[in-house]
Specification:
Shape: globular
Number of strands: 16
Number of domains: 1
Number of helices: 5
Structural class: alpha+beta
Distance between the termini: 107 Å
Order of helices and strands: HEEEEEEEEEHEEHEEHEEEH
Strand order of the largest sheet: 1-2-5-6-14-13
Strand content: 25-35%
């Protein structure tokens, strides 16, 4: 079975990456960054999900768990990621689950060499998986931030979720929906379709902070991050986050995020350019205190008195 990483490996001479995304995905080059001169306008890369695969109780498609699309852009040291969805940050209220809500899991980025054709589990074992916890309401084992991931965990059983991607796909297909993870196929070639889906960080090395964004106009983009123009259909909410892009390796990646119950999720592909770490802000050094003129005079008088006293002691 062809690996998903190999199937979409970008090359320098091939068509642009956004034209070569997987089934259910789109790439729209949209320059939306404004008011940030002299930096150049940014190109946001979008991936669309199926609009009929979010499971909310008996409702398939268009419900609370529907995820419509993800967009990302690297702008200097900043990596911006936006989600268009019906699921609010903080999750879907459900008193029967841990924490009282079912939220998004953590977002994983796989920077393994595409030529190696690694599955997600193999890339994790190789140390190539990075993760971002961006929702305080989920059941992740780490604090908010960016991590090099050492271990993952599944929280589907404590969130009334599907215990495999196969069971999720069967449920959606059973009502003529279109199950999709965007740029990641549901055939088990990258994410196991029979094991418990791994959707949160269990352990890892903290690399840096994450900044939540609930209105992209505050950081120079359109308020909806351009989803309205890029997607054929949109959800009720747009939000996302910003992290320092230098915390990740440079090169091609495949990323994904899943709801804690696996009632929907989305994978997307991209590339990060090498960027120098953001310069650290140095604390201002304390300046030497310059004595006031009156203090200088007092010091001179005192010094003269001391010298005279010493001379008198030596020569009575």
């Amino acid at each position: 079975m062809t690996s998903i990483l190999k199937a979409f490996t970008p090359t320098r001479t091939a068509a642009p990456l956004w034209l070569r995304l997987g089934i259910g995905s789109i790439g729209v080059a949209t320059s939306l960054l404004v008011g940030m001169s002299p930096a150049p306008a940014a190109t946001i890369n979008y991936t669309a999900d199926s609009f009929t695969d979010g499971v909310t109780g008996p409702v398939i498609g268009g419900g609370a768990f529907e995820l419509y699309g993800i967009g990302y852009v690297q702008q200097g040291n900043d990596l911006f990621v936006g989600l268009n969805t019906n699921l609010p940050i903080g999750g879907f209220a459900d008193t029967s689950v841990v924490g009282g809500s079912i939220a998004w899991g953590d977002m994983f980025f796989d920077f393994s060499d595409p030529a190696l054709n690694l599955t997600f589990a193999e890339a994790l074992a190789a140390g190539s998986i990075y993760g971002v916890r961006f929702d305080t309401a989920n059941d992740s084992s780490v604090a908010l931030g960016v991590y090099q991931v050492a271990a993952t965990k599944s929280v589907v059983q404590t969130n009334n979720g599907f215990e495999s991607f196969q069971s999720y796909a069967d449920r959606v297909n059973g009502v003529n929906g279109n199950p999709s993870l965007g740029a990641i196929p549901l055939d088990g070639s990258y994410l196991s379709h029979t094991d418990l889906p791994q959707n949160e960080i269990a352990a890892g090395t903290f690399l840096g902070d994450v900044t939540f964004i609930d209105d992209f106009s505050t950081v120079g983009f359109a308020a909806d991050f351009g989803f309205g123009a890029a997607l054929g259909q949109t959800g009720s909410l747009t939000y996302g986050f910003r992290v320092d892009s230098s915390l990740f390796p440079a090169g091609d990646f495949v990323a994904h995020v899943l709801a804690e119950c696996i009632n929907d999720g989305l994978g997307f592909r991209g590339e990060l350019m090498a960027i120098a770490p953001r310069p650290e802000t140095e604390e201002p050094k304390a300046s030497a205190t310059v004595p006031e003129p009156g203090s200088l005079m007092g010091m001179a008088i005192a010094l003269g008195t001391f010298t005279l006293t010493q001379r008198r002691r030596q020569f009575p």
